Amino acid sequence: MSWINDLDALASAGVIGFDAPAYIKGVQPRYYGHPALETLPDTLPQMNSQPKKDEFKTSGTGVNNPSWKKWVFGILATAGLIFGASKLKSVKNLFSKISLTTIKTLPKKLFTSIKTGFNHVINLFKKPKP
User: Fold this and answer.
1) CB atoms inside a 10 Å sphere around CB 7
2) What's the rounded Cα separation, in Å, for the pair 33 and 15?
3) Are 20 and 7 in contact (CB under 8 A)?
4) Rounded to the nearest 5°, which phi and psi values hold at 44?
5) How far is CA 122 from the centre of its chain?
6) Cβ atoms of 60 and 43 closer than 8 Å
7) What would the DSSP string read from start to end of 14-60?
8) Most buried among 5, 59, 76, 79, using CB within 10 Å?
9) Is the pTM of this model over 0.70?
10) CB 79 within 8 A of CB 58
């Protein structure tokens, strides 16, 4: 007996109540319930064929917004962010602290902080002198 006949025998005995081989293969069921084993056909309908290669096919129902809508959304989002940031007290205080001299010394401060951090990491791996 094949696995199809075995599952059909289970359906006819009342253990399962549907066409299990058709469900497994993904085809139209031949019967529902508990038919007599003698009345069941031996073969299943043809199964859907497997694809020859793995590919992604689009259905073409994607959203195609025109570019002017994208630009308007970008401008509105940017304006909203700027407006929201201007209402925060911490941002107002930040702009009052920024001056031309602090901008000029920023690269030097950045370089010295990187240098001291690197020296700290190097000293962690050095052996102490006895």
Assistant:
1) 19
2) 10
3) yes
4) -95, 155
5) 41
6) no
7) TS--B-HHHHHHTS--S-BS---GGGS-S-PPPPPPPPSS------S
8) 5
9) no
10) no
